[in-house]
Amino acid sequence: KAALIDEFQDTDPVQWSIFERIFTGIDVPMLLVLKQAHVNRPKVGL
Question: Which residues make Cβ contacts (< 8 Å) with residue 10, sequence separation at least 6?
């Protein structure tokens, strides 16, 4: 089991405190996606 937290760079202190309370004391790795690079994403003309 693992927890994946996507868009972690947008996490605020309240959200982080919730994650911290959930995962403190249990053996589940948290995978934090800190910065995303969109590769081969089609460009949209606006």
Answer: none
pTM of model > 0.70: no
% of the chain at pLDDT higher than 70: 67
Question: Cα(17)–Cα(41) distance, rounded to whole angstroms?
Answer: 33
Say how many C-beta atoms besides its own lie within 10 A of residue 32's C-beta. 14
Interatomic CA distance for residues 15 and 6, integer angstroms: 13
By CB neighbour count within 10 A (0-12 exposed, 13-18 middle, 19+ buried), where does 6 fall? exposed
Strand partners, 32: 5
